[in-house]
Specification:
mainly alpha, Flavocytochrome B2, Chain A, domain 1, 2 domains, 3-stranded mixed β-sheet, two-stranded parallel ribbon, 24 helices, 5 strands, binds protoporphyrin IX containing FE, oxidoreductase activity, acting on paired donors, with oxidation of a pair of donors resulting in the reduction of molecular oxygen to two molecules of water, Cytochrome b5 heme-binding domain-containing protein, FA_desaturase_dom, Fatty_acid_desaturase, oxidoreductase
Length: 516
């Protein structure tokens, strides 16, 4: 583990990685300490998942300038290279087959993707190891060539040398340096949590969570069929709301159980896992980065930065956004239904590449509409509206009032040639993953007791979730003090506010931007 971190830090500028394990003590020239360190350095992650770790050799190959210098854009459209655990991988072929969609791989070209890889994938300790096995089979390669002076030379690795790199986006040299250190320490923290079993799922908790959703929907349906529309709407609405949070947990989760349960959101809410995963994971990888995170890209309906600040064209709606924001969020689940259906009908993912239609999921969505059709119309309409309104208000509250990161404007949002499409042939600039999470969200302290915590469905531990998306959500509250302690020790900037404050800050942000 430490090995992996050190390889990333101590790659030298000539492009050769030195014997990473000895490096931290090299300047002290104390051989005994080096020997001890070598003996004690922990097993790398791929080895722990049963995969031989070819990266961990005495002479680390290939030469990988994790530098630090600014790099050139890829020579050809096909060149896609990612750095994971100190090893460069040629991902040009893999991008086309990547189960999460090619967009994620292409956007990370030329960058250290270690943190985001372990955050999202199955790699052993979190229920499966498919992604780690796949990674070990990818062709290894050398780093993208540096070409100083090139007009395309506009990007940096996330762990760039702050003294020399030109840093686009919202990062500054000081912040970049801090982000680099944080990333290194975070990997050790993650390993510690893995070893302590934080990623293990509990059968009892899984059954209880599912029983609540099914119970509320079943009771609600019974009430609806027996002439109690108000109670039925409340019961089904809450069931759908809880299904939203539970589906979120399943889709992030790894392993057979979560994989199987990915159908649940389609069955209860008509939301497709494929569509949602792509949208939501863009939010996870590039949190609060304008142009990529669609959770903060809602103009002209919601403006999080004024046109003066963002340089984008204004719209008359902006002046009223704080007035309509809270009621308008009632359309969220309707919108997600529409977008899920459109995903299949268009057969395309965000970067325009064709998707493989999951017919079982389509069947589950059809079953959902069949169930709704058996309910009285006001109950069906009311339940979807109520659940979407609750989810919409809680989801937006945890990010909208936080720092918005103006990504390299050249990404151009989702317009033509933007979003890291194959045609763009360029490497993008993002802020570092771990640091971004601390800057882009905070935890909420529920002030109205357990009922409110239940309604938040885990979103009140938003920071824990963003750092460890594959961890079961019922572990997050216990993790909170542990994370806080770690964050304080590393000056990471852990933040928490009463839930009422967060909701108010969210609304105030909209009002302030409206009044500019
Ligand atoms: C280059 C090495 C990579 C390999 C071998 C790889 C492999 C995989 C595999 C096997 C899956 C299926 C789910 C799983 O088993 O975890 C997956 C899903 C996914 N990957 Fe990757 N991946 C790579 C890089 C990346 C990167 C750098 C990102 C993000 C920037 C990313 C984002 C995703 C997303 C969003 C999903 C979908 C998750 C879901 O459906 O819930 N992948 N990847």
């Amino acid at each position: 583990m430490a090995d992996r971190c050190l390889k990333r830090i101590f790659a030298d500028r000539s492009g050769k990685l030195k014997e990473a394990a000895t490096l931290p003590f090299e300047f002290l020239n104390v051989g005994a300490i080096n020997a001890l360190y070598n003996r004690w350095s922990s097993t790398p992650r791929l080895e722990r998942s049963g995969i031989p770790q070819t990266v961990r050799t005495t002479t680390v190959a290939p030469p990988a300038p994790v530098s630090t210098q600014r790099k050139a854009a890829p020579k050809t459209r096909q060149e896609i290279k990612l750095l994971i655990d100190g090893q460069w991988y040629d991902c040009a072929g893999w991008a086309k087959a990547h189960p999460g969609g090619g967009i994620f791989i292409r956007l990370l070209h030329g960058r250290d993707a270690t943190d985001v890889f372990y955050a999202l994938h199955s790699y052993g300790p979190n229920g499966a190891d498919t992604a780690a096995v796949r990674l070990a089979k990818l062709p290894k390669c050398e780093a993208p060539e540096a070409a100083e002076g090139s007009a395309e030379n506009t990007f940096r690795l996330p762990l760039a040398d702050s003294a020399t790199a030109e840093i686009p986006g919202s990062a500054t040299p000081e912040r970049d340096e801090h982000a680099k250190e944080l990333s290194m320490n975070f990997q050790e923290f993650r390993t510690k949590l893995e070893n302590e079993g934080w990623f293990d799922r509990s059968v009892g908790q899984e059954i209880w969570a599912l029983a609540q959703v099914l119970g509320l929907c079943a009771v609600g349906s019974e009430l609806a069929w027996n002439g109690h529309p108000w109670l039925a709407t409340l019961s089904i609405g809450l069931g759908m709301e809880q299904a939203g949070w539970l589906g979120h947990d399943y889709i992030h989760g790894r392993g057979k159980w979560c994989e199987f349960m990915r159908l649940m959101p389609a069955l209860i809410n008509g939301h497709g896992a494929g569509w949602w995963s792509e949208k939501h994971n863009l939010h996870h990888c590039f949190t609060n980065h304008e142009g990529l995170d669609r959770d903060v890209a809602m103009e002209p309906v919601f403006w999080l930065r004024s046109p003066d600040e963002s340089g984008r064209a204004d719209h008359p709606l902006r002046k009223f956004q704080h007035l309509y924001s809270v009621p308008m969020l009632a359309i969220v689940f309707w919108l997600w239904r529409y977008q899920s259906a459109r995903f299949f009908i268009r057969g395309q993912c965000a970067d325009g590449n064709p998707i493989k239609v999951d017919w079982v999921e389509v069947g589950a969505m059809v079953a959902n509409y069949a169930w709704l059709a058996t309910l009285p119309l006001p109950v069906a309409l009311g339940s979807v509206t109520l659940s979407g309104w609750l989810v919409g208000n809680l989801v937006t509250a945890t990010h909208q009032c936080e720092e918005i990161m103006p990504t390299d404007q050249a990404i151009g949002g989702f317009g033509p040639g933007g979003k890291g499409s194959a045609a763009s042939g360029k490497t993008w600039a993002f802020d570092e993953f771990v640091d971004t999470q601390f800057r882009s969200t905070r935890d909420a302290e529920c002030v109205f007791g357990p009922a409110e915590t239940w309604l938040w469905g885990g979103m009140d531990t938003q920071l824990e979730h963003h750092l460890f998306p594959t961890m079961p959500r019922y572990k997050y509250h216990k993790l909170r003090p542990v994370l806080k302690k770690w964050a304080d020790a590393h000056n990471a900037g852990y933040r928490i506010s009463p839930s009422t404050t967060i909701l108010k800050d969210n609304w105030t942000t909209l009002r302030d931007v409206a009044s500019v």
